[in-house]
Amino acid sequence: FSIVTYTGTGATGTVPHGLGVVPQMMIFKNRGSAANWPIYHGSNTAAPATDVVYLNLTNATADTVNMFNDTAPTSSVFTVDTNGNLNEDGVAHVAYIFANVEGYSKFGVYTGNGNADGTFVYTGFRPAFIMVKRTTGADSWFIYDIKRNSHNVMDKYLLADTSGAEATDASPLGLDMVSNGFKWRINSGARNTTGQTYIYMAF
Predict the structure, then answer these.
(1) Which residues does residue 202 pair with via DSSP β-bridges, in sequence order?
(2) CA distance 194 to 118
(3) pLDDT in tens, 79-123
(4) Number of neighbouring beta carbons within 10 Å of residue 191
(5) Spatial contact of 203 and 105, defined as CB atoms under 8 Å apart
(6) CA nearest 175: which of 97, 105, 119?
(7) Is the peptide bond before 172 cis (omega within 30 degrees of 0)?
(8) Closest to 190 (Cα-Cα) out of 125, 118, 124
(9) Residue 62 C-beta-side C-alpha neighbours within 13 Å
(10) Residues β-bridged to residue 92
(11) Contact, 175 vs 96, CB < 8 A?
């Protein structure tokens, strides 16, 4: 996990991230204006370097060519293009950069099955926190954790893209955090619809 600050140039360029491995997820914020929060996710699509979602919005994946210059990050740098959300000329920006760490963090993708006996997502550890976003449709970012949900089934969630209070899933309930991943107990479109694609971050 790396936190990087840099000053935008308004031109295509690279920024060192210091991880030493290829990032799997990057969250950006323009610190000088009320801009969106672009997210790069390495599992987003077959061509993640062209695609973006926003932490503060519900939009589906969009192919935004002036965001990352259609260039995937390397083990040393990430690429920014001319988009003001992450490279406004003369303005300070911050980026939160994540990589997979066995037993600690996982950034991946799954496909929903539309069933209350829902999709199982393998992480290799029992997650304490997950955040999930459907990329094939307009839905919120759902957050579950083991502090607000002390046992399975977990049904309390927050939405990263709103200022709303904590909410509780109606029956069927939310999900189970298990020893090697998480398993949905809900057929909600925002989390487990048949054939829909979802990205996640888990710690």
Answers:
(1) 106, 130
(2) 10
(3) 999 999 999 999 999 999 999 999 999 999 999 999 989 999 999
(4) 26
(5) yes
(6) 119
(7) yes
(8) 118
(9) 12
(10) 7
(11) no
